[in-house]
Amino acid sequence: MLQLHYRETGQGTPLVILHGLFGTLDNWQTLARRWAEAGHRVISVDLRNHGRSPHSPEHTYNAMAADVLGLFDQLGLSPDTTLLGHSMGGKAAMRFALDYPDRLGKLIVVDIAPRASDMRHQDAILDGLNSVDFTQCTGRQAADDALARHISSFGVRQFLLKNLYRQDDNSFAWRVNLPVLTEQMTSIGVEITGNQPFLKPALFINGGTSDYIDAEDKLHGIPALFPNSQVATVLDAGHWVHSEKPDEVFGLVQDFVGM
C-alpha cells in the first residue's frame, strides 16, 4: 500500500476523483473546483506510478484499490463518500467498490466498462514516450517533436506533456513510471470481476462517440456487477468526455450525488 499524493478543496459530502492512464489529478481540477463550490469536499488523487504519488513495480487494480483504501483511512472519509474514476481510474474505482462496498455511498465511472480492454491502441503512445531522449531533451518543444514522430494528435501530445517536469539537476523526466507502465500494460486492460455485485447506486458516464462502453456493456456487463446502475451518454463527446463536455459532466455528477 502506497501513500498517495492528493489535493483537497471544499467542504461537504466527500467526492474522491481518480484520473486515467498517463494522467494526473490536475486533469480534473477545473471540475473539482466547481464541485467544491457546489458544496462537496473534493479529494483529487494521483494514482500509483502517476503524478506526484510514489512509484512501485506493481501496477494492478488490487494494488490501486488498496492504495485508495489507505487514503480513505488517512483522511477518515465517511461511508457516504462518492468515488469517481475515469478510464483506468474508473476500473480502479470499480475494483474498490466491489472490494470495499461498505466504504462508499455511490460510485461514478467515466467512459470505461468492466470488460477487458485491448491495450494495443496505447502502443503509439508508449513508443512516443519511450522515444524521448532526456540526455538530449532541452524542454517541452523538444519533447513534443519526439512525440510527434509517433503521435499525430496535438491534443494527445499536450495531455502527455503535462507529465514533463524538470528534476533537481535541471534535467527533464516523465512523472509517470514509464518502465513499469510499459511492462504492465496488459494488467491495465484486465477485466474487472467480483464475487458479489456492488448494490449501491452507480452512474456510468460515456461519450457518445467513444467505444469504451458499448451496447453489450450497457445490457449485460455493467448491470451484472452494478445492478443499481444507470448509464448516461454525453452526445458528441469522446473518451475525454470531462474535458470535451465539462458542463454536462458537472451536471450529471451534481444531480447524481445530490440524489
Descriptors for this entry?
alpha/beta; two-stranded antiparallel sheet; 259 residues
Structural notes for this entry:
The protein is an alpha/beta fold and 259 residues long. The protein contains eleven helices and nine strands. The chain has helices spanning 29-37, 61-75, 88-99, 123-131, 140-148, 154-161, 178-183, 185-188, 215-225, 241-244, 246-257; strands at 6-9, 13-18, 40-45, 82-86, 106-110, 164-166, 172-174, 202-207, 229-234. A seven-stranded mixed β-sheet has the order 1-3-2-4-5-8-9, sandwiched between helices. Strands 6-7 form a two-stranded antiparallel ribbon. Strand 6 and strand 7 (172-174) form a beta hairpin. The radius of gyration is 18 Å and the shape is globular. The model has no long low-confidence stretch (mean pLDDT 95).
